[in-house]
Specification:
about 1250 residues, transcription regulation, Gyrase A, domain 2, alpha+beta, six-stranded antiparallel barrel, Pop1_N, zinc, globular
């Protein structure tokens, strides 16, 4: 007997296996809809619509969310709801690898799928592999240590308690000399010390022993690659780059759409406090901003606003001592707003952390000698910052940085929302600065999109704000300069849990909670940088994270969210703008030199850890002319080889880094441009190695990389110099390339075999052709790189520039290798700006050009300029403006042509695709067999239509295209009438004669013909013609209409001529066509030339009676009338209903101007009336008036005036086209039919001629079918 507990056999009562379980089963929690009680919706038994809708709003949204969740649950697993940058490799089968919010769902799915879940060995209490016991033993030791410390604390408390009980009866003298405290000595004044970071929580304390975490460190560790824990950068753990690919995404977000944000809290802040004159002397001693064209110490323009505290200033600080001061770093200086009744001022100096210690020592040394003294504070761990750039940066900040309180209309809080439409910070005033307190962004989470006004009035107001910038006069003192305000804001931040509870209990569903007086007031200072084109926000250190989360969650108007960047992305943005980045591109200063030494060690380490077979052997590099091995240190920008000695030779010793660094000077770009333009220079400058930054643009192929060598053109080898100059592209190179492209065969089909043999034999017998163009890299006659004597610099940053669409680089050149040592120095010409770039480890050089970065424009208005000390304007070369204008016009025209061609190509391809689908569908429907009655009674299903053409396949109601529709579909088929369309107009420009044996769609191409519209109709130009000329034109047009068939707007497309051809008309109107219009009152159709005159009379707005009516109305308004209102004299008080005056029902022909309501009422009265006899229709008699021209004609012919002239109108078999357009005439004829159905008698027109005229012949065709 089988075991009942056995799993191999089923018991007799067990049911068979159920159906196969679906892969994604429905989850019950997706349909749990939370409801809200509706007790408040019916006060006093009455329904309040607003309260009723609010009470059910939660249920409706929950229902929509449940439907959305149910739909998504059928096709997605838990780990697929995690963003790609946060996914883990094992998340598909390990529920512990997904976030907590999805972990329960992942467990449920794994259980349903029968996925085995094993306990991981990472972070679960034990170690990995053979060293598990190490981690286990460490955990055990820590547990025992914790227990020992707890036991000792308890024993200490017990001892203190026993000691207190033993001393209860002992009296202690309060004024004993032993217990009296001695007065503390006054501490000697000390200068500020370096700040230390706040003690982190115990669980993170060991990780921050040698470094400091940024406020957003935990957020970044899940999404970015950080610096190594053992190798912090500038004593900070800094994000290097996002974990996903972001090079192109960063370029698009920073330039085209979106925004990129960085946590810049690692930037150091130094606070200066004291009298304004002392702070000014301190900054002047550090030679602040002496390299810029604008003077920050003048008392006008931007300088005055900067010292007032409403602007910021960017510039370099230099060492105090030395004949030629050495640059320290670029800084940003911000003054506090002057407070009333206070003689002291405060200022912030923002500097990169790599140069902080050097500047700190200089500031402390100078502050000691200032009188009155200047107080210096280190605020590195008290003030954090966020930098954001991109077109969507302004709208993001306007939504997240919400002012905590309203103020005046000209205050920064009031004007801040209007800046949401700014996409380029360059439109704002230079160095614009705003400071106001903001509320906690977590109270307004999730953030909503900023309201960007697009109307003209808002745009005008915005332009006025930018032009006037009223913030300069209303900027209050910022609380971020006050330590107490910063600490109060950080301490008053509520926890996330309390904020969530407040959101759930306060306010309506979906609305932000109302503000309270206890909400934190976060001091904030924001400024705009013109150099980096970015927005920078200064906040207290602990308030950075709430603002950062809000920025990352903001929904941009262009779609998506702002991106975050690391150190590499920040360097990339500067590189794409061809702007040097500090400290990477400044090897002439101490911070840049330290970065260079650090990068050398990293590159050498990467090269060393590679296998010998996969790394470059530097000693085997052949540079031709007997030169072996790489020039200098292959892993470095070897500036040591360029240091001059007294004898003029080059130092080959690269180990003395300190000596080399002291001999380097980073030269400002402004001085470099002036010297290269021809300003004389003293020989003392050439005794020191001056470096200046340039931009490298490649002329040939190749991408420059870091540490690439830069050579000038050979100066001692004329032949080699000419070879390199021959590689420069000439003016006719582009036209030559275009000609070569045109001469090449465009067909992809191979040539016949005999032609291929003939070409091969000809190529073997003919001598080799001499190449006309320059040699290419790798060929024998390609020029070699110059000697070491021509080395002028190194590339510090190089890559493919997405902004310019070509490889570029930022490099540093040596001054004494670029300029000539001569007394008549006149500057560099264009040829001497050509250089040769060779990458480290390569033997081939590439031709390039270099130029200094462009000078920044003066930030002050012309009235605020520096006056006579300002440099003279540089005149443009002759023809430069014409060349620039021509290039701009050519670029614009090329863009217009390109966009037009692309649009036409896309439209044509869509029409061909639609035509292919229409043809296949028509063929399938034509071949479809309709089910017969016998088959319809049976259960057999009809066969699905299927058809195939050369261009498409129709199957089961779907169309599949075959190949390129531009090649497979020769013509365009109309999807409505299924007829081919004409591809060319039939008259005017570009006309072609169509195939008249085919029938075409009535949608004709537009016509381009002088004097005609796009439909081919002529413009009305015959207004001056006489009546006889117009009658003649009508007869000619009538004769032409009898020969044509149909018009573009008619439905007579099935009429064929006798020879089987279709005659096509481009326009449906004659040459004498004049538009007509229908009167809205009497419904008469009149020519447009007489419509205005008729309208005056029909509506009664002209003539004597209309003026009388107007006067009567005026008198009625003034109170001079008889008191019957504004009714005109002679009219009734009200319009009587039809038939109310005893007139009987109005005939149908007379009721055209009556409203439909009155007409219905009249019909009802007719049905209930006493007299059911219809009224006899009144006939309109024609006047017997004879025109003067006819009377003169009859007088000449001698026609008597007493005879009766009868005119019969008979039908014309060729007037069908005219009759089809006379629908109103048919309606009037249908009304003339008698009730018995008998047709009405023929219409006969009678006219009486003059006496003596012969009698008219008696009609004999009264019964003919054509009579009418």
């Amino acid at each position: 007997m089988s075991d009942p507990n056995s799993k191999k056999r089923k018991g007799p009562g067990e049911a068979p296996n159920p159906a196969k379980r679906p892969r994604f089963p429905q989850r019950a929690q997706a349909y749990q809809i939370s409801t809200t009680p509706t007790t408040t919706a019916y006060p006093d038994g009455e329904i309040n619509v607003k309260s009723f809708l609010n009470s059910h709003q939660n249920e409706i949204k929950s229902l929509e969310n449940a439907m959305r969740a149910a739909k998504k649950g059928l096709s997605r697993r838990a780990f697929q709801d995690v963003p790609r940058e946060l996914r883990r490799r094992t998340a598909s089968h390990n529920p512990r690898r997904v976030p907590n919010r999805l972990r329960a769902r992942a467990h449920h799915e794994a259980k349903e799928d029968n996925t085995p879940i094993s306990r991981g060995t990472s972070g679960s209490g034990i170690g990995k592999e053979k060293k598990k016991w190490l981690r286990k033993e460490g955990i055990e030791k820590s547990r025992k240590g914790w227990e020992d410390r707890k036991r000792r604390r308890e024993e200490k408390k017990r001892d203190d308690k026993d000691t207190g009980e033993a001393m209860e009866g002992v009296e202690v003298e309060k004024d004993t000399p032993a217990t009296t405290k001695q007065p503390a000595k006054k501490a000697k004044r000390k200068f500020a010390l370096l700040a230390t970071p706040e003690t982190p929580p115990s669980r993170f304390r060991r990780r921050q022993r040698d470094k400091t975490w940024l406020p957003t460190h935990i957020w970044h560790t899940k999404r970015a690659r950080m610096t190594l824990p053992t190798e912090p950068l500038w004593r900070f753990a800094i994000p290097l780059a996002p974990a996903v690919k972001a090079y192109r995404l960063t370029h698009r977000a920073a330039t085209m759409r979106g925004a990129v944000a960085w946590d810049m809290s690692y930037v150091s802040t130094i606070s200066l406090e004291g009298v304004e004159t002392s702070i000014v002397r301190l900054l002047k001693a550090l030679h602040f901003s002496q390299e810029t064209e604008d003077d920050p110490w003048q008392e006008r323009g931007k300088a005055k606003k900067w010292k007032k505290g409403t602007r910021m200033w960017e510039g370099w600080l230099y060492e105090r001592e030395g004949k030629e001061p050495k640059g320290v770093a670029p800084v940003t200086v911000i003054w506090s707003v002057t407070e009333e009744g206070s003689t002291k001022r405060k200022a912030f100096i923002r500097i990169h952390p790599c140069a902080f210690l050097q500047l700190w020592n200089e500031v402390i040394r100078i502050a000691k000698v200032q009188k009155p003294a200047v107080t210096v504070e280190d605020l590195r761990f008290e003030i954090g910052s966020i930098e954001i750039m991109g077109p969507g940066a302004a709208e993001t900040l306007c939504s997240i940085l919400h002012p905590s309180s309203a103020s005046e209309s000209s205050s920064p809080q009031a004007l801040w929302p209007s800046l949401a439409s700014v996409t380029d910070p360059g439109v704002l005033p230079p160095g614009a600065l705003l400071a106001f307190p903001i509320s906690d962004p977590r109270l307004r989470d999730p953030p909503r999109a900023s309201q960007i006004a697009q109307d003209a009035e808002s745009q005008v107001s915005f332009m006025e704000t930018i032009a006037m910038w009223p913030i300069d006069g209303s900027q209050p003192a910022s609380a971020i300069f006050d330590r107490n305000a910063r600490l109060a804001a950080a301490r008053s931040l509520p926890s996330q849990k309390s904020i969530n509870r407040r959101k759930s209990t306060e306010g309506d569903f979906g609305e932000y909670p109302p503000s309270q007086q206890t909400d934190p007031q976060i001091p904030m200072l924001l400024y705009v940088s013109q150099k980096s084109k970015s927005w920078t926000i200064l906040l207290p250190w602990k308030c950075v994270m709430p603002v950062w989360r809000g920025i990352m969650r903001y929904p941009l108007s262009t779609g998506g969210n702002p991106r975050f960047g690391g150190l590499k992305e920040r360097r990339q943005v500067y590189f794409e703008r061809s702007v040097p980045s500090f400290p990477f591109d400044y090897p002439g200063c101490e911070a840049g030199w330290g970065w260079e030494l650090q990068e050398r060690a990293v590159r050498e380490h990467e090269w060393t850890k590679r296998p010998k077979g996969k790394r470059i052997e530097w000693s085997t590099i052949d540079l031709d002319s007997g030169r072996k091995g790489e020039l200098g240190d292959p892993w470095a920008c070897d500036w040591e080889r360029l240091v001059q000695k007294e004898g003029g030779d080059v130092s080959m010793n690269g180990t003395e880094d300190r000596t080399t660094q002291s001999s380097l000077r980073q030269w400002p770009s402004r001085d470099a441009r002036e010297v290269l333009a021809g300003r004389p220079i003293s020989p003392e400058y050439l005794s020191i190695l001056h470096l200046f930054t340039v931009k490298i643009s490649m002329v040939q192929r190749g991408t420059p990389t870091t540490c690439a060598r830069i050579y000038r053109l050979p100066t001692n080898n004329t032949e080699l110099r000419s070879k390199w100059l021959s590689l420069l592209p000439s003016a006719n190179s582009s036209s030559r390339k275009m000609a070569e492209r045109k001469t090449q065969p465009t067909s992809d089909q191979p040539l016949p075999e005999q032609i291929q043999r003939r070409d091969l034999a000809r190529s073997l017998l003919e001598p080799p052709l001499v190449r006309n163009g320059p040699p290419k890299a790798g060929e024998e006659d390609y020029p070699v790189v110059p000697d070491e004597e021509e080395l002028i610099g190194f590339v510090t940053t190089g890559n493919y520039n997405l902004a310019e669409g070509m490889p570029t680089a930022v490099a540093n050149l040596v001054l004494h290798r670029v300029i000539e040592k001569s007394d008549d120095w006149k500057g560099l010409d264009k040829e001497r700006r050509v250089c040769i770039v060779r990458e480290a480890g390569r033997t081939i050089g590439r031709l390039a050009t270099w130029e200094t970065p462009p000078a920044t424009m003066s930030e002050d208005n012309p009235a605020d300029s520096a006056g006579g000390d300002a440099p003279e304007a540089i005149a443009l070369a002759q023809g430069a403006l014409e060349e620039l204008t021509r290039d701009i016009l050519e670029s614009c025209i090329q863009n217009i042509i390109h966009s037009t061609a692309i649009s036409c190509h896309r439209t044509e391809k869509q029409l061909r695709m639609q035509s292919a689908a229409t043809s296949a569908e028509s063929l399938a429907l034509a071949n479809l067999e309709l089910p017969s009655q016998k088959n319809s009674q049976s259960n057999t299903q009809p066969s699905l239509p299927k058809a195939e053409t050369d261009a498409a396949l129709y199957e089961n109601g779907r169309v599949f295209l075959k190949g390129n529709p531009l090649k497979t579909t020769p013509e365009i088929i109309c999807p409505h009438c299924k007829l081919p369309r004409l591809m060319h107009p039939m008259m005017g420009k570009g006309m072609q004669q169509p195939d008249l044996t085919r029938e075409y769609c009535m949608l004709y191409p537009w016509v381009q013909r002088p004097g005609h519209d796009v439909y081919g109709n002529p413009f009305p130009t015959d207004m001056t013609k006489t009546k006889k000329e117009r009658e003649l034109l009508k007869q000619q047009q009538k004769a032409a209409d009898n020969q044509s068939v149909g018009t573009p707007g008619s439905q007579d497309t099935d009429m064929n001529a006798g020879d089987g051809t279709h005659k096509l008309n481009t326009g449906g109107k004659p040459a004498s066509y004049i538009p007509w219009h229908t009167c809205p009152k009497c419904k008469r159709s009149l020519l447009i030339t007489r419509f205005a005159h008729h309208l005056d009379k029909c509506l009664g707005i002209s003539g004597r009676q209309s003026s009388r009516n107007a006067m009567a109305k005026i008198s009625g308004v003034n109170g001079n009338s008889s008191g019957v209102g504004n009714t005109p004299i002679g009219s009734r008080l009200g319009t009587p209903a039809p038939g109310s005056q005893g007139d009987g029902p109005i005939p149908k022909s007379k009721a055209k101007g009556i409203s439909p309501v009155k007409n219905l009422r009249d019909n009802a009265d007719d049905d209930e009336g006493e007299n059911d006899t219809p009224e006899k229709k009144k006939k309109k008699t024609k006047s017997s008036y004879v025109k003067k021209a006819d009377r003169e004609k009859m007088a000449k012919e001698g026609t008597p005036s007493g005879t009766l002239k009868v005119k019969l109108k008979t039908g014309n078999p060729n007037s069908e086209r005219r009759d089809s357009n006379m629908s109103e005439k048919r309606d009037r004829e249908s009304e003339s039919i008698d009730p018995e159905g008998a047709p009405k008698a023929k219409k006969i027109k009678l006219s009486i001629g003059k006496a003596g005229s012969p009698p008219a012949p008696t009609p004999t065709t009264q019964g003919s079918p054509g009579a009418s």
